[in-house]
């Protein structure tokens, strides 16, 4: 191993230890009332509305909308091809690979010799890529485990088994419909962008999440209830992770706001 490789490996290992030390060992701030789950009227209303939405989709919408989407898939209309392109964005592979490569690249930069403002820019950016990699990766793994354990049949079995067929822990791709893994990625990624970028862009991220999740319906891969559950799971899990970090003073600022604020340095 050359001296350059040794130096790069040493900086990467130091960056990894710093992330774990700050995230796991940093004591909580003095503000004791800040919790990971905000217990207020809005939270309760959101949870109730989410359950009602998923239940209503199960009972009244899944069957009809799945038949409509499968008709577009059979006819190969321009709508189908549009959503086929959109749905590929929900694959977590490109997100994880990009975040990992960029994070490692920053970790081997010699930032010690940089001016203070520039050094903090790269440190913050390194944290952003780590946060993206962790939230998208963990939510994707959890969603994959859940949908295989739940074992809901995908729309491909709609005509033979119906839209409410479950075979728990079957671990077959055609019985892994609820929740949608791609929609989980869309929900997590859009929440990451909402938390890290200016908040005034939230309509854009909401639009991307809805269209991205809807693409899973239009290509015949999932039911509306699968998509709603996946988007909510990815977004809420990422949101709770950000609040957990904020409670420890890492990356985000702990406050009484529902959504934590990104630290500038």
Detailed description of the structure:
The protein is an all-alpha fold and 265 residues long. Helix content is 68%, strand content 2%. It contains nine helices and two strands, in the order αααααααααββ. A hairpin with a 7-residue loop joins strand 1 (252-253) and strand 2. The protein starts with a helix and ends with a strand.
Strands, helices and their partners?
Elements: H1 3-25, H2 41-75, H3 78-87, H4 92-107, H5 116-150, H6 158-161, H7 181-196, H8 202-218, H9 224-247, E1 252-253, E2 261-262
Antiparallel strand pairs: 1-2
Radius of gyration: 21 Å
| Contiguous helical run count | 9
Quaternary structure: single chain
- Distance between the ends: 34 Å
* Helix/strand class: mainly alpha
Major sheet strand order: 1-2
> Mind describing the biggest β-sheet?
2 strands, antiparallel
**Overall structural domain count:** 1
Range of strand content = under 5%
Q: Output mean pLDDT.
A: 83
Helical coverage, percent range = 55-70%
List unreliable stretches of 5+ residues: 29-33
Q: Choose one word for the global shape.
A: globular
Number of strands: 2
Topology as H/E string?
HHHHHHHHHEE
């Amino acid at each position: 191993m050359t001296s350059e490789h040794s130096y790069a490996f040493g900086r990467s290992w130091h960056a990894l230890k710093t992330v774990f030390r700050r995230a796991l060992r940093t004591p909580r701030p003095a503000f004791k009332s800040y919790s990971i789950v905000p217990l207020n009227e809005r939270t309760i209303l959101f949870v109730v509305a989410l359950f009602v939405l998923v239940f209503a989709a199960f009972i009244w919408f899944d069957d009809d909308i799945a038949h409509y989407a499968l008709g577009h898939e059979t006819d190969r209309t321009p709508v189908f091809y549009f959503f086929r392109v959109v749905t590929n964005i929900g694959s977590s592979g490109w997100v994880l690979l990009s975040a990992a490569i960029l994070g490692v690249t920053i970790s081997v930069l010699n930032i010690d010799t940089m001016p203070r403002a520039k050094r903090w820019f790269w440190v913050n950016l390194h944290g952003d890529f780590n946060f993206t990699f962790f939230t998208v990766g963990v939510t994707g793994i959890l969603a994959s485990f859940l949908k295989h354990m739940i074992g809901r049949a995908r729309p491909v079995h709609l005509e033979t088994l119906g839209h409410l067929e479950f075979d728990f822990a079957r671990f077959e791709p055609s019985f892994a419909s609820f929740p949608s893994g791609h929609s989980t990625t869309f929900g997590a990624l859009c929440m990451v962008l909402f938390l890290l970028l200016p908040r005034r862009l939230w309509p854009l991220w909401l639009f991307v999440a809805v269209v991205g999740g809807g693409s899973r319906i239009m290509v015949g891969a999932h039911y509306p209830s699968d998509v709603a559950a996946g988007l909510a799971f990815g977004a809420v899990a990422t949101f709770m992770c950000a609040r957990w970090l904020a409670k420890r003073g890492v990356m985000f600022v702990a406050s009484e706001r529902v959504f934590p604020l990104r630290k500038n340095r």
